[in-house]
Amino acid sequence: MNLVSLSQVFAASTNANKVDDITGHWAESTLKQWQEKGLITGYEDGSIQPNHKITRAEFAVLINKSFGFKDTATIDFKDVKHSDWFYTDIAKATSAGYIKGYPNQTFKPNQSLSREEMAVIVTSLLQLKGSVTPTVFTDTTAGHEWSKGPIGAIVEAGLMVGYGQKFNPLTSATRAEAVSVLDRALKFSKDSETVVYNQAGNYGPETGVTTITGSVYIDAPGIVLSNTIITGDLLIGEGVGKGDVSLKNVTVRGTTTITGGGKNSIHVIDSTLITVIVNKKDGSIRIITEGSGSVQQITLQSGALLEEGTGTGSGFDNVDLSGLIPANSQVTLAGTFETVDVYAAAIQVNLNSGSIQELQVAPGASNTGINISSGASLTTLILNAVARVTGQGSIGTAVINVSGSTITQTPNHVTRADNISVTIGSPAPNGGNPNSVTEIVYGFEGTITDVNHQPVADLTIQFRKGLGNTTGAISGTVVTDINGHYFASLSPGIYTGQLVKAGYITTYVIAASLTDYKNTLQDATAIRIPAADEIRIVLTWDLLPLDEDSHLVGPAANNKFFHTWYADNEYTKNNVLYADLDHDDTNSYGPETTTIRKRVDGTYTFYIVNFSGNGQAGLDTLSASGAKVEVYNGDNAVPVKTYQVPAGAGNQLYWHVFNMSVDGNNLTFEDKNELTNTQPLANVDFDLDSQLPDSYAFSVENHPGATDVVKLNSLSPGDIVSVYTNETGPPIQSEPVQEGSDTTEITGLDFGANERIIYVTLTSPGLDESRRLTVPVISEANYTELSTTIANAFADKEVPGTLSVGDVVYLQSNPLQVFPSDLVIDIKSLEYYSPTSVSDTVYLYKDYSNIRYLEYNGTNEPIKYKVTLELRRGFATTNKEFILTVPTVFSALQQSVNAAHILLNNGSFDAALQEAMDNANEVLNNPNSTVQEYLTALIAIHSALDAVAGE
């Protein structure tokens, strides 16, 4: 069947005998909602096929339809024709700006959408900021650098999740996943409506506190925002210019981003900002805290002045000077700071007054200037990169971990790592103070590792001056230590280092010696000579383009072909590794290595792709890259074949290097060595294995005795699931997926009482068996704890009457109860339960990762919802159902008055809270009070309670 845009995104069904393939599916509820809204309507047979992969074009159609994009842009992608069914939708996507094509002017509309691509597209769609915090996933390095920030952002927003400790960035997204993520994105965008202030003036109530559920955008000077709680983010935009903005008694629960303001600009008065990011292009911005104002974490991406004024607040706690701050920027501090971490290179940090408890210069932040003015103090200084410390202020302890720094003043205590030199105090004549080391260090250092990221010791590096100089006079020679580390003390300039060690291929490192400080991180990868039966292909190139990619197409073990490249870097069959891209270099020079581990006679094709594109000026071409490919046959240190990229003015994106015939140990080459804009061998019959669903489709139960269960969903009829107890033996049990089902359950297993490993495979019709997925099984005791103790922590409960609309409802009976760190709580469903007499008002809402309080209950009886949770530890799961009750406003108001009474009697006097409580009591004591009066009193006392809680 031709997809045809999921037949215009799951095209209209005309078959009377409709196939229902979503009942019982994990995304059933969302898919049915989208069907009801007309966003998806099924294929010709009525099926949705939720577990099938979705293409880039299909995803664009879904976005345009669900978000209502209608404007189009002119497009000229080579692989998108006017006659294509998806042409208009790709034009809409281009106009909306949420998706881009590839550097070679293609869109790849029929290519399966990967999970990392979905994260990037949805992040762009919602204009989320890339997360500066590394994600908890262990496999993001398997993806691309460009996807890490969006993955962090989309996970933090609760729009996508990982699978245990993995995100699986290169795994193809399914149609069900796409609909589910977009459904959350729609709700996220609606829940995150932004209040805009773009005219000078005073905003917010004069007394009391108002809550804005969403974000606030301030885009004009002369704005004063008072007495406001912002549940989302605050953006102080460039429209502020060099003017002022004042925040008075404002609490921002999200991130505050400041891109506008001047030298007397942002006043944080009696306000609480949790996380602040500053990026003022010219660096001329002053941020001052006053009164009880506090900023818990501030990250500067530009220069700035941070000042603590008078008052009792904590001011600025932790300050990060990020690597995005431009060189030569000025950061000035005045006040009492807990920590200041410097990640930016070549900036100037000035402590004009006050103190810093700890200032740390991170590795890579070389050439930092630090000035401590008279009267200011620094308790602890930690230098992990070269810095120049000046001024007349005091330093308590200096910890020096690299050579080459200078400190004008003398710290009270100095700790230096072994063999580290530093200049302390003014150099004395005639050799100076013997307690000071005045040696000035030039040169550079780095670490040499192999393709497995292990250090290579006792490797000789011969440095020659000049970029790409491999034959001139040797300027210096160093040998790596046990950690693969080296240091070369050479005069300023660019050097080419030749890596030499028995058992390794000769490769090179490019390093720079700077004029006024030691350069670090001049690292390289050493490539081993292949084993006797292996073939290794090594690619190297110059500075630009940054990323050239190696592609190898070769004969598979079943008369088909394999393809190794950055997105699929291993070809394995029956647990045997045949070929791999064992080192993918993405940042100039190489080396990038592809290795044939097990030879299969036949013809192999090797080609290079300019992944970075030709650059804005069109000059970063393959032909100008100086690229070289060497082929090594067996354990021979001399290449059997060498190719230089054809020089010239061409801008082609593919370099077809060679075809190679393998006949046992004999290699025969067909020299292609041609540049082209056509991908070589793009349409051959590739060997495809069955693809296991993601780990969230698994459920493993470990009970006492032979009652253990492996359950797997998101499958298709005819799929066969097999369970193994080891990596090589036969399966202990296999079960097919029956017609009309997407699930199989293997029962009667016995994994034993302790933790262990099992292996699971999938065999789909017409495809080979998948690789064996390693599945950790928790112990019987831990599974019993999961299904009893942990599950019992979620019981019938009432939403607290003190909870405000918009807040998250805590689901466990005891919000302070500590769960295992690997426990994942997934809200499978939230269903209205009782009473039947209530209208369609929605009181509780599931926003994927939480349940939120959406509406106060103004009826005469409590509202009940049934919650179904999936509790997961790794692959082990259990479900728990319980009832969540929404109290009436009459009950909620009484509970809130009781809470206010306790706070006021315990010494937390607050005039606004007292007034709100008094008004609430009047409503409670008046038998004629209306529901609206109860609601008004409840909202007022909740606002007052929130304000007291935030102090």
From TrEMBL:
One Pfam family linked to the record: SLH
All copies of domain SLH, residue ranges: 14-72, 73-136, 137-196
InterPro entries: CarboxyPept-like_regulatory (IPR008969), Cell_Envelope_Struct_Comp (IPR051465), SLH_dom (IPR001119)
Origin species: Paenibacillus monticola
Designated name of the protein: SLH domain-containing protein
SUPFAM superfamilies noted in UniProt: Carboxypeptidase regulatory domain-like
